From TrEMBL:
Belongs to the aldehyde dehydrogenase family. Pfam families: Aldedh. This is Aldehyde dehydrogenase domain-containing protein. InterPro entries: Ald_DH/histidinol_DH, Ald_DH_C, Ald_DH_N, Aldehyde_DH_dom, MeMal-semiAld_DH. One of its GO terms (molecular function) is methylmalonate-semialdehyde dehydrogenase (acylating, NAD) activity. GO terms for cellular component: mitochondrion. Residues 26-218 form the Aldehyde dehydrogenase domain.
Amino acid sequence: MKSLKLLLLQQSKLSHLGAIPLLQLDKVAENITTEQGKTLTDAHEVVEHACGMATLQMGEYVRNVSSGIDTYSVREPLGVGAGICPFNFPAMIHLWLRVVTGNTFILKPSERDPGASIMLAELAMEAGLPHGVLNIVHGTNDIVNAICYDDGIRAISFVGSNTAGLHIYGRASAKRKRVQSNMGAKNHGIVMPDANKDATLNALVAAGQRCMALSTIVFVGDSESWFGYFIEVI
């Protein structure tokens, strides 16, 4: 019964943790927009996604995969994890996955816009998250290297540039850490002469400053005449 009560208490805290940022949605989203420049609608979606992550960590159960055989999977905590956040998704990437799966977490937000991470950490304390479960460190290269080399950190998740990603992956994997390193890409969009102008404009999100955004446009044939229209609408 003691373990069941503890489990129910943990579930209650995590549910509360997921609910509190939603109550402060406008405040956190406005901070992201002010610091990073993201549109307010996009910032709202970032916060909402972060708040819903606790529901995405369930295991799986499949009955009767063979005669008299059921299969199931159980997700177990790994240990101390670290997240190195990108500037353009300060409240979504890394922040909650470690905590909601029973691990302690060290977060290094981008030095360009750390405000949202601080606000969400304060809300986590308000929700009753125990001290030491969520930790925030600030800095640049020296902090990143310390995270890579620290033997107590079991896994690192990173989103950012190719240069930083290769640096982190090489050093952390050499220390036998699990490393998730999501680096930038140069995504090209080819615009044909018969393309729909409005549909093309809608595909150009965040001024190309997202991992999967189109940062380079290749115009084919007469579509070059669209330049004036694009500039006027944007």
